Structures are given as structure tokens and as C-alpha cells.
Amino acid sequence: xxxxxxxxxxxxxxxxxxxxxxxxxxxxxxxxxxxxxxxxxxxxxxxxxxxxxxxxxxxxxxxxxxxxxxxxxxxxxxxxxxxxxxxxxxxxxxxxxxxxxxxxx
Length: 105
Known about the structure:
- By secondary structure, the protein is an all-alpha fold.
- It folds into two domains: 1-32, no CATH class; 35-105.
- It is built from six helices and no strands.
- The protein is globular.
- The two termini are 17 Å apart.
């Protein structure tokens, strides 16, 4: 999923939410120094998987890779998550680790 397509779609649907996302979420929260972008990606992916927010998983898996997480680390994180968020959540999240960053069918 292309970040620019998502951002442009959000701008068309809700310009204010797009502005808040860019300026507050990615411009402030993701930039704070206490946690690294890598750590923030792990937290975000765990929350998205645990809450079943599948539509956001593909983009955030790609973003996590940009933040230095490898496929093996992501696989381990989702495997660990199975015991806290449930097997279906972990298996669904693992499906987003394919080359195309989309669910395996």
C-alpha cells in the first residue's frame, strides 16, 4: 500500500484528519525521543493486530521495515502476540509479512 495514495485519499475524505495525522501523529508523536521509531512500530503493530485493525496492518508492516525491523523480528513479535491477543489475531498479522505486504490467500 503506497503511503502517498493513503495520504491523498485521507486528504480528500477528511482534510482535517489528514492534517492532524501528518502534523500531530507523525510530526510530533512519532518523533519524540523516548522511544525509537523501531519500538513505536512494534507497539503500533501489536495494537493493530490485537484490535483487529487489519486495514492498517499492511502499511505499518512496511513502515516497520523502514524503521529497521526485519521479517524475522516481526514474525517473532506476532508469534509472541498470539498468547496475549489470541491466535486469530497473530495469524492474521503474520499474513501481512508476505512480499507484497498483503494477506496470504
